[in-house]
Write a structure and sequence with these properties.
The protein contains 3 helices and no strands. It has helices at residues 8-46, 57-64, 66-72. The model has no long low-confidence stretch (mean pLDDT 79). By secondary structure, it is mainly alpha-helical. The chain is rod-shaped and about 90 Å long.
Length: 73
């Protein structure tokens, strides 16, 4: 039966790896949070009530059905 002997060299090799992995996790989490914030901001700006134009039913029907009005004249 073989036993793995833990030495200070193997323990020293895992510390830098854990450091860059945790740094990578932090950077990825920060990027995801920034992306979500930007998407939420864009959604709020695009769908805000201030940018909506009022809809007039008669004007819409004049623009969508010009051929029918021409045939009635």
């Amino acid at each position: 039966m073989r036993f793995k002997i833990h030495t200070s060299a193997s323990a020293a090799g895992t510390a830098p790896r854990a450091r860059w992995q945790s740094a990578l996790r932090r950077h990825l989490a920060a990027l995801l949070l920034m992306k979500i914030a930007v998407l939420a901001l864009l959604w709020a700006l695009f769908f805000s009530a201030a940018h909506r134009t009022p809809v007039d039913g008669a004007a819409v029907s004049r623009h969508l059905l010009p051929a029918q009005e021409a045939s009635h004249d």
